[in-house]
Design a protein that fits this description.
Elements (H helix, E strand, L loop, with lengths): L3 H12 L5 H4 L2 E9 L2 E4 L1 H10 L3 E10 L5 E9 L6 E9 L5 E7 L1
Parallel strand pairs: 1-6
Antiparallel strand pairs: 1-2, 3-4, 4-5, 5-6
Organism: Nocardioides endophyticus
Pfam families: SnoaL_2 (PF12680)
Protein name: Nuclear transport factor 2 family protein
Amino acid sequence: MTTPTERIQDYFALATQSDMEPYFAQFAPDVVVEDDGQTHVGIDAVRAWRRSVPGVAYDVRAVADTSTGSHVATTEISGDFPGSPVLLGFVFTFDDQGLISRLVIAP
């Protein structure tokens, strides 16, 4: 089984690919994603959310465990959007199968 750090690296690598199915396969069916003040529940909502996200580049600066069992990836995001580049925290929670069950993206 892969480590949380490897799963996080896979997340960012797959997020930039043109074939998004491997990206979506990383999420649990009942996943919760919080981004930009909105909450998206379930894989269908995540698919809709990702269609609205502009193409960006990710530069993972650090990955750390939290005391709650989650993992935080401090990541620089750059692309064609106001304020680019920006440093964001991606807080990943994985289920027992190693799928993303919760993702919180915040400054």
